[in-house]
Prior knowledge:
Keywords: Membrane, Transmembrane, Transmembrane helix. The chain is an all-alpha fold. The protein has 8 helices and no strands. Helix 2 packs antiparallel against helix 7 and helix 2 runs parallel beside helix 8. The radius of gyration is 18 Å and the shape is globular. The two termini are about 20 Å apart. About 40% of the residues are buried.
Amino acid sequence: MSLEIVAVGIFFIIIHLLSNELIPADRIKRLRWLSLSGGLAVSYVFVYVLPSLHSEQQKLQDYADTLTMDSELYFIGLLGLLIFYGVEKVVSGTNEKGNEDRLASFWLQTIFFTIYNMLIAYTVVASLIEGFQALFYGIAIGLHFIAVAHDLWRKSPKRYNQIGRYVLASGIFIGWVIGLSTSLSSIAQSMIFAFISGAMILNVLKNELPKERDAHFPTFAFAIVTYTSITIGLNYFFEW
């Protein structure tokens, strides 16, 4: 495992432990920060996640005899989106009820996002990306984690600070350990990537795409154009 992967993992853990401290308290600054984060996340989905999912599907041609169509991974991605949407639906319903239901919804959401963190951390380690590429994509995922963690903190700040952030951070560590100690087949890794891609697409569009009244559009547009341009340039010159 490269030093860059270690740095990215520590960065992810720090984000979950300090997410509520990283978002500015001032409303205007907070909206600009979330618009910046949302723009980077949306760009990351369209210029990296979706093309990578297509690339993983192409690699499965080696298993053509056992596959029935050319879109298996897309179905797995759709399953990831569906499961996390179902969790969000349950959580939004129980938050309107009593304290016991809100506690149950907090743990349901925390457990699912811990699994989500674990799978992302595993994918980062298993992908064997190194150097500036690891840091570049790590920043985008890190900002995505900030938005997700901030959303969980906003819904239940006391519980998140007391235990939720540590549970979420443990998911990063567990994914690390699994990635270092376990070697899965390429098709299994592709399935994991597809699942978290679907979940990430939902989380980005639901939690990070700013509402019209809350968005600082110049910051949002700047983030999209800048990150997309840099990604395309790096892909062209370094064939990432």
